[in-house]
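User: Show me sequence and structure for the first protein, then do the same for the second.

Assistant: Starting with the first protein.
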Amino acid sequence: MSANFLLASLGQLLPIKGVYLGIAEAGIKQSNRKDLLLITLDEDTNVAGVFTQNRFCAAPVIVAKEYLFKDNPRFPIRALIVNTGNANAGTGEEGIAHARSICAELARLLSCDVSQVLPFSTGVIMELLPLEKIISSLPKAVANLKPDNWYAAAQAIMTTDIVPKVISKKILLGGATVTITGVAKGSGMIHPNMATMLGYLATDAALCQPLLQQMVRDVADNSFNRITVDGDTSTNDAFILIATGQAGNVEILNKDSIEYRELEEAVTEVAVYLAKAIVQDGEGATKFITVSVEGGRVLDECAKIAYAIAHSPLVKTAFFASDPNLGRILAAIGYAGVDDLDVRFVQLYLDDVLVVENGKRARNYSEEEGRRVMKKPEITVRVVLNRGKDSTTVWTCDFSYDYIKINSEYRS
């Protein structure tokens, strides 16, 4: 981790000018637990986002997309409301009505338009929200609003997560000091097709709205879109990027500018940190695995192979057992869908150990070396296709007994 990162602990996280966070205990799934997060924003704050592509997307996703992408600059986004314990997905028109009701009540409390409030939910699917519990707790969240509540915010959006995921970073941008702080949640049902389960990054940099929307898409593609725990895309995924414009830098209006590139690089670093934290906190995970595919003709074939390896239950269980049954990786490469792949040119490495070359087991490879690597808590699987110059990386974890236990008992 670079020196200008601030570790995720209370007192080391940096507030963002123009962002306030409030926490409440609504008792949505259980009592005495933070389960409601309110984020409010100063006027003239820009907000951008990407959402799940699951066709059974949750009611809050439908409402948030409608409000965020509305064509009315008179009503910029002023608040985000997040609940855990209940996903409000698979709830039909009644679920949408509940999401709108929460936004309407919060808009009343904050004296803004209902379309200026974005709703988010995570938790059990196909159950209606406990609407009265949430609405009665909104005043508590408003009363708790503070600029330095980031760690509590990370705790409030957790479901099966074991640890809060939150980080800060500072950079110098055009002579101004710019701060970025972000939180995310996710542990299972992680194979996003846009982002992660829930992620919120804020910066005080000044950046115009169209470029902010471009940045959130690009950042997601290079961070949250490169992780998988179990191959399941959530119904509720959302990744929101906020720019309050209060750092004092000249507003960024040009995507080709040095300032844009530097800001995007910094935001991506924060997002990658959070994305990796989600994988490291994967349900029951004991090992963090980087899958790197190099030498492809096009990016798409590299991604197909990387995800085939990262998704394979047989590969993931072998890593859990530290069993160098690496033919499972070859099988995944072979069925990934690269129809003209010539396996005679493929090389497979486990960390720095050459396992496969010329379409077969490498001459000097031994299972003792494979087992040595697989016992490590962090492992790199490197596939070299030797057919082009494109490459990609995916981060995943192993499957343990606890993954089954956690998910079999999820609603209990």
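Switching to the second protein now.
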Amino acid sequence: MIERRLLLATTNPGKVRELRKLLRGLPLRIESLERYPEFGKYRETGKTFEENSRGKCLFYSRQYPGLVLAEDSGLEVKALGGQPGVYSARFSGPGANDQKNIQKLLKLLAAVPENQRQASFVCVASLGHQGRIMKIFRGRVRGLILFEPDGKNGFGYDPVFYYSPLRKTFARLRPEEKNRVSHRGRALAKVRRFLESYWQE
């Protein structure tokens, strides 16, 4: 039986918080990369979310004794041909942060009318152990990009991503509301079900 430890292969504090909440209650110890600086940093070079997710998972699972969960996620905007995609976190170039990324996105979409601002948040999560991918999980949620930020919760592009069924941006949702409908929430619900059945075997 695999050791009951799970490494979250990310240094993004926002992602760590969300992932911990989504996996709360599972019979395993959840750790993040902050505890293991000696593992080094994986350089994302993939052209798809799945390539980055798999690569990250394999890189860290060769160094960690338990399970490794790596995910790559981002925003795809239809009017921009799917951008920023895998470059979501570094969209605005060197020194990129959430605010600069949002500013660049809104500038590019300035002339795009409301009915053509469709976008999707995408998440691909890979679960691995000792250099082997066990399973890959996917989640997607569709919305619209607003003309200006609205809300203070969440991180990334949440302030400009409007989710029509709840009539709010992701940055206006409480964490538990967002986790029920988000791309990461949908992917992690599948991870959770897999792990629950795995530990029962």
